[in-house]
Amino acid sequence: MKVLLVGNGGREHALAGKLLESQKVRQIICVPGNSGTASMERCQNLPLRIDDFEGIGRFALVHNTSMVVVGPELPLALGITDYLKRQNIKVFGPNKEGAQIEASKSWAKSLMQEAGMPTAYAEVFTDATTAKAYVASQKAPIVVKADGLAAGKGVTVAATVEEAQAAIDDLFNNKCPLVVIEEYLTGEEVSVLALTDGLTIRPLLPAQDHKRIGEGDTGANTGGMGAYAPAPIATPALMERITQEILEPAIAALQKRGIDYRGVLYAGLMITPDGEPKVLEFNCRFGDPETQAILPLLETPLEDLLLACTQQRLAEQPPISWKQGVAACVVIAADGYPGDYQKGQVITGIEKAEELGATVFHAGTQMKNKQLVTDGGRVLAVTAIGENFEQALTQAYAAVDCIKFEGMYYRRDIGDRVRKQV
Ligand SMILES: Nc1ncnc2c1ncn2[C@@H]1O[C@H](COP(=O)(O)OP(=O)(O)O)[C@@H](O)[C@H]1O
Ligand SMILES: [Mg+2]
Fold first, then answer.
1. Which CATH number is 157's domain given?
2. Mapping DSSP to helix (H, G, I), strand (E, B) and coil, where does residue 306 land?
3. pLDDT 10s digits, 296-320
4. Residue 420: what pLDDT?
5. Short-list 345, 406, 350, CA closest to 380
6. Is residue 116 a part of any domain in this protein?
7. Structural domain that includes position 377
8. Of ligand 1's atoms, which has the minimum distance to the CA of residue 154?
9. How far apart are CA 185 and CA 270, in angstroms?
10. Does the pTM of the predicted model rise above 0.85?
């Protein structure tokens, strides 16, 4: 099997690494990949842009690629799947219409409402005056969301009405055409990623990530500073409810709209204090860094699952099997991220970290003059597996301690919530 993998983050390094565990996967081509994917045997990078559908399609056809797996949301939202499918290329990832579940929060909310799914009450606005008047009639905290893709920067959880109104002005002034205003929910967040072929849906292990840059969940939002799986809050009984009340209705609602959705459906959930799962949002792709915590625990060959999704044969697959134990992932970032940061700092110690049994996924790295240097905000993701979270986290942090570069930053409190649980 030959797989073309689109993306260049830690998520794609983890996907490539898991796929290559199977000898059936003869070759992976990463577009554009990173220095992590470049360093693996049977894996090579192809320097195309992720929105160069023509280039990707041509390569996939000429090299007889078995399937294209799309990592990031942007090419999905731009219709890469529609483009490649017209050429009879198998694609793991929803089409443009399906990707709206992530790319348009108002579209997603109407789908949730249509499906009768538990989610925060919300209204959609097209102008600032009406939106601000609505907020004035509500209680704070209240949540203001940009409708479109915003790379994690489109949501304000406003503590006061004034803060919400400022966020509304900000969005409309920046040409955001639609704003969703949502009821504020409390509880604990969990990410449930599921594989689907458009008919059947199979959840993966639940994960929790750490969005904020600072310890104690403070400071700016980021792409994610760490993750662990399986998240204890999502017990098997709760996962059953999430599947029946959220995932399956989502697929049914997509079908009802005539959407053949094949890929990852990622539900970002709030588990309220009384234990009710409510949808905060859906994503149309693997999460980063959740994937770096989930996939190391996967035992079923990943290529079988992904291919089955593209061929609508997921129902025939045996139940997904997982390793015993838990996984924890700590993201190492460049000083200043998610604001401005420097690139080009020399990175050392990765081999030592891996000798301790951890896996180091590359995100923002590059080879320059035969040296590995930083090349992004989130630089590396370090994952360790253990019998329990105490073990996995101790090992992950021991590995992080081996790694050095100028201005390296990471949170020391990843997994603190679950650390003492057995
Ligand atoms: N209704 C809500 N109530 C409370 N917090 C929310 C609500 N919606 C979103 N949030 C918070 O904002 C974060 C980002 O919102 P989300 O809808 O996931 O958008 P995105 O990931 O696109 O930025 C969530 O992870 C959650 O912490
Ligand atoms: Mg989110």
1. 3.30.1490.20
2. helix
3. 999 999 999 999 999 999 999 999 9
4. 81
5. 350
6. no
7. 326-419
8. 23
9. 7
10. yes
